[in-house]
Amino acid sequence: MGFKCGIVGLPNVGKSTLFNALTKTAAAQAANYPFCTIEPNTGEVGVPDPRMDKIAAIGKSAQIVPTRITFVDIAGLVRGASKGEGLGNQFLANIREVDAIVHVLRCFESTDITHVEGRVDPVADAETVETELMLADLDSLERRIVPLRKKAAGGDRDAKMLLPIMEGALALLQDGKPARVLEVSREDEAAFQGLTLMTSKPVLYVCNVDEASAATGNAFSARVEEMARRQGARSVVISAAIEAEVAQLPDEEQKEFLDTLGLDEPGLDRLIRTGYELLGLITYFTCGPKETRAWTIVKGTKAPGAAGVIHSDFEKGFIRAQTIAYEDFVACGGEAAAKEAGKARDEGKEYVVQDGDILLFRFNN
User: Fold this and answer.
1) What is the pTM of this model?
2) Mean pLDDT, 10 residues at a time, over the chain (365 residues)?
3) HEC readout, the chain
């Protein structure tokens, strides 16, 4: 189950530095969080989850296999991208292919690095990118809605279902608002996503700050945080320069280096986790002597759907799932003790899998 986050931003905001640090960190931590290069600008990274180490130690697993998330370093955007300026067409095409947008914003002053707009204003930068995406979405919907209205007037059932969704998104864009603020029912969610609107994608703002502000943020990042709060988006504070340094250090030196800066963990770990949460994803685990493995599912997935992530046959032939909550697995010291303590439950087809569940599926071949 693959999920992609596209890293976007104006030129010279630290986007590629962040991506390079991300990929180098992942490569250096290959034992725990494997990384592989799919294309030159794409990296697949393990989601850091300290629960896996405890589960694997208790289960005496030979290997740890984390769940994964893909980051795509998308070509820098410039004003006018919606009209094809710069690498506009490539930029927009790449964004349509991702599940979420990681928007890197420059939150530092520097006389050595010029800003494409000649000033440092992360909120204005965010608005520049958002405006280009809204203009592109607006153009796309305006071209598609006329023939859809004709079909709906002619009695086409699918067109009549889709038309109010498209008209709602169009009205928002015409009012200068992104499509993601449209309230869509669960039944209409698939149709809404089928419109492939770039402004329908969730956004994570990454405040790229100077080294001195890495632990506390600064006035620039505070403005971004407030903007994200108003939008219902997420934000994280990271110093790409620090992350690039951390990526070059051996594991045993990384913590000492971060401690001197007042940081508990690499900022990239927070970025990866927050991106994972942004997509509404949770993790369940399987554990055995061979491996402890994390599996990604959308929050609210029922047991058969969770089984299907492992193999479609598991979902088709699902009988039940032995379920142990993470806290119970750790407190009891493993599966056998959890069973003895009555903490292992057999759940059926209607069970909604919870984050951290340790599952063993029973199914018909």
Assistant:
1) 0.80
2) 80 82 56 44 84 96 91 69 50 81 90 67 91 90 94 93 95 93 89 91 93 92 94 90 86 86 85 85 95 94 96 94 97 96 96 97 88
3) CCCEEEEECCCCCCHHHHHHHHHHHHHHCCCCCCEEEEECCEEEEECCCCHHHHHHHHHCCCCEECCEEEEEECCCCCCCHHHCCCCHHHHHHHHHCCCEEEEEEEECCCCCCCCCCCCCCHHHHHHHHHHHHHHHHHHHHHHHHHHHHHHHHCCCHHHHHHHHHHHHHHHHHHCCCCHHHCCCCHHHHHHHHCCCCHHHCCEEEEEEECHHHCCCCCHHHHHHHHHHHHHCCEEEEECHHHHHHHHHCCHHHHHHHHHHCCCCCCHHHHHHHHHHHHCCEEEEEEECCCCEEEEEEECCCEHHHHHHHHCHHHHHCEEEEEEECHHHHHHHCCHHHHHHCCCCEEECCCCECCCCCEEEEEECC
